[in-house]
Amino acid sequence: AKFGLAVAESNVHQLNTHLLRTHLTTESFALSTWRNLASPHPVFKLLQPHIYGVLAIDTIGRKELIGTGGIVDKSLSLGGGGHVTFMESSFKKVNLQDYNLPKALKKRGVDDSTKLPEYYYRDDGLALWEAIKSFVAEIIGIYYKNDDDVKRDNEIQSWIFDVHKNGWRA
């Protein structure tokens, strides 16, 4: 039973947590960034170090990892087409809010440090979340003073539209 659970968890981690929720969901942001934002755009500059190479890695991954006869077919119990069905089903459950760490922790019931002290994933993760949030807000605040500035930025509006049309549903 322990072995079966370990195999199932390995499939979930490799296909859902890592491949789908990290690589493949990032792809729509990467593609939209390259399509819609000029290289001097502040959002492009913030995202570029994180999306550089995503499309190349994902293209190789689709062929070598999840393609017919690929590594998943040869090494995971969900190979032989089951992995595609599993990832399609998993993607239908993914929500952009899943990537909001404070909300995700609350949803899982692990947000309260008085009830669950010394939970380092939460504690360290929230410290990083706040540092990144502060840094991004400071940089974006240089370019956008209010919501109307964002609404008037045709590049960012095209970027958002493209992400929703070709990747994330609203």
Q: How is this fold's topology laid out?
A:
Layout: H1 2-36, H2 42-51, H3 54-64, H4 71-75, H5 82-93, H6 101-108, H7 120-143, H8 147-152, H9 154-166
Helix pairs in contact: 1-2, 1-3, 1-5, 1-9
| Helical content band | over 70%
Q: What is the total tally of β strands?
A: 0
What's the N-to-C terminus distance? Answer: 40 Å
What count of helical segments does DSSP give?
9
- Global morphology: globular
What's the rounded overall pLDDT mean? 93
What does this structure look like?
The protein has 170 residues and is mostly helical. Helix content is 73%, strand content 0%. It is built from nine helices and no strands. Helix 1 packs across helix 5 (82-93). The longest helix has 35 residues, at 2-36.
Features:
9 helices, mainly alpha, globular
Summed up:
This protein is 73% helix and 0% strand.
